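Homework help thread (please don't just give me the answer)

Our assignment gives two proteins as sequence + structure token strings and asks us to describe the second one. The first is just a warm-up. Here they are:
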Amino acid sequence: MNYLENILARLGQSPARIVVEELRPAGKVSVTAAELLERIAAARAFFASAGLRKGDRCALLAANSIAWAAVDLAATAQGIVVVPLYARQAPAELAAMLRDAQPRLVCCGDAALRDVVRAAWPEAPAVAILDDLLATPHGRPQPASAAPVELAGTDPVTIIYTSGTSGEAKGVVLTSGNVTYILSCTTARLDRLMGTRPNPDRVFHYLPFCFASSWILMLSCLSRTSVLRLSTDLTRVADDFRAAQPDYCVNVPALLERMRASIENQLAARGGITQKIFRNAKAAWLRRQNGSGGGGALWLGLARAVLFPAIRRRLGGNLKALISGSAPLGIETQLFFMMLGIPVLQVYGLTETTGVCTMDDPGRVEPGTVGPSIPGIEMKLGDADEILVRGPNVFCGYWNRPEETAKALAGGWFHTGDQGEQTPAGNWRIIGRLKNLLILSSGHNIAPEPLEEKLARAIPGAQQVVVVGHGRSYLAALVTGDVQRENAEKELARLNGAMPHYRQIRALHLEPKALTIESGLLTANGKLRREAVAARFRDEIEAMYRPAGAGRNSQPA
């Protein structure tokens, strides 16, 4: 049984159970298993009436919703290859992906997105709006129990476009076999986390379904006894999170960093004995984790008895774990939530590996790592400590790019482009991206990500840090946000004091405006587009390497 057959069977077994909810300002909108099956049947009838057949491609451009899930499953049930796209992507980038995929149909979340598609891609094929697609009878109604088109393990089910951090995005082709295997692993790991219980898992979700790991989470929920609660407004994520009362939630590190900062700022604002208990308990906890001695048992005991339970209640009260992926999570943030009694489980993977390669085992978490490789997946280190992956999760190739496919899969292993190392416990640690490696004129090789992470955490008000210096004699950094130079230089001096000379950052440029997706300086999932940043700030970077440090904000540190 493949993953789609399993999901449809589970929906049919418990028709009255609520499976997906949209959290809206006006209230919740819920759908039962039977209602979701009816929507899937309506979408399948639409696809059939539109003449789409197995192997055709259908683009799906919409925010997360019940309709998105129904249309995605319906397309797969018809053998149609889904091309999910990010609703906030720049129109020119959307048009490039659509031209590359050449879908027979584009399904949009609303009229505004439809107009964006038509303006950016005048030669677009038919465009349908999701609500219209699901609401209108299309030809002979198809029963909700109708069997899906037969899918072999090698049949493509989706083409997901990568973020394109340094060039044009590539379409990653994933097969039914890829997805079926990964879901068997994710559901098994969630079973370990949740144990045996009669009630459905409560899962909160805000990350766009067009990203592989987010889509896998949606399918995992539908493959288990869960209710998936969707945030429909990014400005309300914090309120929706509390309202959802989740057992777990998949996050990007940036949100966990903001949650941590918000908690610490609120405690600092309260002051008095509350702040004292927290400060001393945290110091005691970190000493124990660092192996630098005990002490502080009284403060830690007080916090565990009085303070930490109150914080957990404010976060919803039901949290069994916070799951983090898409980028490295700072170990300090992971330890912070562990101190509160909330495990943070890390996941590592790429679109090309169906979103997952490693997952933390809930019972054996090693802070600062992303867990062991999941069963059946081989991982090893290649040249320059590049992580290589082989297994049933690895994609079959890039859409219409045979040369790049051959390069990525050279020697029968997928070359991730990530540098890593494995701990004695068998867990993996991600060091940085191979293509981001900075080679100084002295010949020293430096991964910028660890330095950027440390500096961003240390400097008050910093939004992003970009370290540069490839081919130069020293490193420099661009820092965005509401940052005071005195504070930045103080923290930089402290960081440099613990670094060998070649890893010290010798100049800073302060930029008040943060880098954004809309400016083209971040990818759709928030990663740095380093080449675009280097081009945009070319003059400012050059100023950091002039002997006198010319430039209003660019000065030697």
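The one we have to describe:
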Amino acid sequence: MKTLFTKEELEEMNILTDYILKEQNAIDNYMNAKNLKLDEKKLIFVIQPTQENIDKLIYANTVINIPVKIVDFSIIFVPAETQEIIEYLINFDLLYKFDLYSFNMDIIPIDNDLFSLELEDSLLEIYIENNYSSLSKLANVLLKFEVAFGKIKHVYIKGNNAKYLNELLLKKEEEHNIKTTDEVLGMLIFDRSADFITPLLMNQTYEAMIDDIYGINNGTITVKKNFVKTYFNEEDKKKRGDQEIKYSLTSDLNKFYCKLRCLHYLTVNNYLFNLHKHIEDLKKKGRGSSGEDMKAINELLFEFRDMTKMVSYINDNIGFLKEIFNTMEGDDYENQKMKEYLLLRGISQTDSELFYMDYISEKKDFNKILNLLILESLIQDGIKNYEILKREMLNVYGFQNIFLFRNLEKLGLLKNKVVVKGLLSQKYDFGKIRDKLGLYNSEFKGSKRDDISYVNNGYCPISLKLIEKIGENGWSQISDALNLIPGETKFPSNESEIAIPPEKINTIFLVFIGGITYTEIEGIRYLNRKYKKIYDESNEENKIRKQFIIITTNILNTKKLYASLGKNFESIYTMKKYNEDINQPTKKK
């Protein structure tokens, strides 16, 4: 992971060191160095706060400092320490082995239009533990954005935590007496509790499916070295090809991937096939030394200059697509897709319990079953015989999942269907919300990308529909639907200023509490491209354009969601106490 720390900067922080290790595989590289020198008095590792990195440091500390202590080990966690890691160190009596320092990065620019606090447990903390520290951090970040870009003029709110965050921000604005002549046109604060359905849906866009398979962290995925051709050359062939590496997906390093990431996976497949075929045809013609043919190749690859590199990127993504298609083989994928479709369309299913029992008995993918179970519970306000299904899942997949089920029940995502006087209760009427907002596009066909609903095969997530409405005529015309969605609602009384803003290019912040999915990110990027195209093609003298910037507590998928909600540990060493101590070296025993 790249970092801005230098030895001089660390010394200014009163952190003295003889050697700084900050590469992705810093610990492994140091331990495997051929000419390992142990004359350094102090080593400082700038690393991500993962249990794997801590285990490696413990091993390195043991190997180097036994039988005689030679080196002091110190750690700076980037982007910040986590409670889970501190608990891990304390529970195993390891805290004294290292000097720990705090250097919190409150916001990370994942991409030009995407900023994240990378607080993976924000949803657990806010909605289960009633810990609102992440909202305070988010308010501080928004205050910094206002100082940099101008005060936010119009505010849209959906959800109770969204209202609380806005109140926090207003209080901080008053405390710091923010004064600026610049203005940001608007901001939407969106509470994840207003749309828990979207994270559960099967992914259809390329980047969302990459995240589902590999797990994208800070713009990179971990793959085998011999799997990606862009990293493989003659020198690499002499090394181990099964070594895991970080493969970058960010726009500054992988422009080719960024051309594909927002597309439907079928569109990516067709594009790569045609591009690969076209390049092969040009290469064959190029062997005839035709100047015109070589010019055609150069024009096609002008952004990449190097045809070998271009072909490598194509092969990399063909490999990723093969992995995607492998996950879709067999009847399971189509059955899950059909059940999701029927649920979203509100079509009654009489064999639902049998469907789940069959999948559980065959020990199918736990996350996929749980996704459908929660989806059905949300859309149909509960599940018949839920307790029986829950017991069967715990028996088959392990009773350690009891904490996950407990927290999902606390969130209201899983519950028994209640019958009142022979009628099924319906506190959350998804059908009415779907119809009033027009979430389902019945005209959608295949992977055609002329409507925002392409991100979910014709279904537009609630969050994206609300954002789209802000970009058009505002929320005043959909107030009935907004009242059906849980949580507080607020929008400006003078929405005409949003529809026809004064500036040529107007920024609207989209703030997600509890996380945003890659499906939602792709939908927002679709809107940005749409508004840019309208702006570029307009001949009007006073033409205007809106652009959205995403600010989120974290990027969410169901694997991360379940991993976070499945945690169960009590704090021994409180974060308050830890924060008091962290800026000083830990005393050793």
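TA reply:
I won't write it for you, but here's a hint about the kind of observation we're looking for: The chain has four domains: 7-105+572-581, 106-195+437-556, 206-326, 331-380+382-424.
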